[in-house]
Specification:
There is one protein chain. With 90 residues, the protein is an all-alpha fold. The model has no long low-confidence stretch (mean pLDDT 86). Helix 1 packs across helix 2, helix 1 runs parallel beside helix 3 and helix 2 packs across helix 3. The two termini are 20 Å apart.
């Protein structure tokens, strides 16, 4: 069973991309920012993701083929669903 801190970190990771993109509500942004101030691991993850997004923006706007995007999103959803149900990841 996961601890409260582990569950908080998991929730943050699920929101991190939306946080960086500015797609959270004010309440959600405030909660994520507070968590990042007190959790060095999540802060490192956020900083890394921000840097990656910046590099992608600098590299240009090449679009992935639709089937690649669809498969990637399906795989991510599958991994998140299996983690929530407690099954091991593949």
């Amino acid at each position: 069973m996961k601890t409260a801190a582990e569950r908080q970190c998991r929730r943050l990771l699920e929101q991190l991309s939306r946080y960086i993109d500015g797609d959270l509500t004010a309440v959600e942004r405030k909660a994520v920012a507070a968590h990042l101030r007190r959790c060095p691991c999540c802060r490192t993850m956020a900083d890394s993701l921000k840097h990656t997004v910046e590099l992608c923006h600098e590299a240009g706007a090449a679009r992935l083929p639709a089937d690649v995007t669809r498969r990637a999103r399906a795989r991510i959803a599958s991994l998140l669903a299996s983690d929530r149900s407690g099954r091991s990841r593949t």
